[in-house]
Amino acid sequence: MLRCLHPWRLSGGRAGLRLLQRHLFTMKVQSPEFQSLFTEGLRSLTELFAKENHELRIAGGAVRDLLSGVKPQDVDFATTATPEQMKGLFQAAGVRMINNKGEKHGTVTARLQNENFEITTLRIDVVTDGRHAEVEFTTDWQQDAERRDLTVNSMFLGFDGTLYDYFNGYEDLKNKKVRFVGHAKKRIQEDYLRILRYFRFYGRIVDKPGDHDPETLEAIAENAKGLGGISGERIWVELKKILVGNHVSHLVHLIYDLDVAPYIVKYRNDLTKATDSAEPLKPYQDFIIDSREPDAAARVWELLKYQGQPDLLRDLQQWSVPSFPVSGHDIRKAGISSGKEIGALLQQLRDQWKKSGYQMEKDELLSHIKKS
Ligand SMILES: Nc1ccn([C@@H]2O[C@H](COP(=O)(O)OP(=O)(O)OP(=O)(O)O)[C@@H](O)[C@H]2O)c(=O)n1
Ligand SMILES: [Mg+2]
Asked: Which molecular function term from Gene Ontology is one that the record holds (predicted)?
């Protein structure tokens, strides 16, 4: 998962600006990944905002991915427009809005040319309890960058290719450094899940494991117990992402050394509560099956070794990973030709197969298609 940095075209002679933290560094970004985002839907969206003089930029993780030469899986947008202004603008243009649950936190989702766009008003987190935040809207990009977790996740990218970087995120990405924006302690106390996000991005970005900012490690150790208040399901989602990254062994050690482990693994019966507790191996097996990485099993052993669960470890080591018996070809033979439908059916059958404890065979699975 080594990510290489693209040779960016710098807009002449501004490199000196990045020396000061909290000093806006800008440059121009041109890359095939960036260009590939410009769908018809995105063009219409940017035009709508430009017409009303609202600023709209790509924000956070998607900027990080683009700068690493990776096409982002999901793109978040940030804007100076308030949710009310966005709603007015979309209504006037006859654009459908969906899923208004995010509105309290400033997020409006608009559907243009069959694509969904999640757009969030710039905000300050006014009150945080380590899990949720009460927010206040702002039109100041720097303030929005300041409430984000890591420097590499705190950048914005305008549609003319201008990168806006307030906290040396670009420099950190190039130097493969994972750092919190401002004080690690404060950032973690705003949302304890950020402890695990730190490990996750460390596994994604850093080449050689071992180097950490002492202040960060201290802040993690001091605040690990905050993870006790986060739902097991959210923890498990992050943990799985750590396990598919690099440096798993190093990170699992660190999770134990910093005493984070008690709050995310031992004593946590709800960690994998989506599944039956009579089958303690199931979530790990599902993870291995879903990850499709050749060494996924070894990564989970690593975790179990330290989880103080030698029985689970032994059982998992003896388990031979079954392979899903249905292929796209089988479904096509059953008379379905649309690629999209085949994909959806494969996913459905996979889920059924997993629920059956990987017991269902090909014919039985395929017979379910015909019935539905
Ligand atoms: N606990 C969190 C979660 C998110 N963010 C901010 O919100 C952005 C988007 O969050 P999310 O999509 O959850 O994560 P990404 O960083 O985009 O990572 P991924 O590639 O997994 O989506 C992050 O980049 C970061 O700026 C944050 O500050 N603190
Ligand atoms: Mg994201």
From this structure: ATP binding
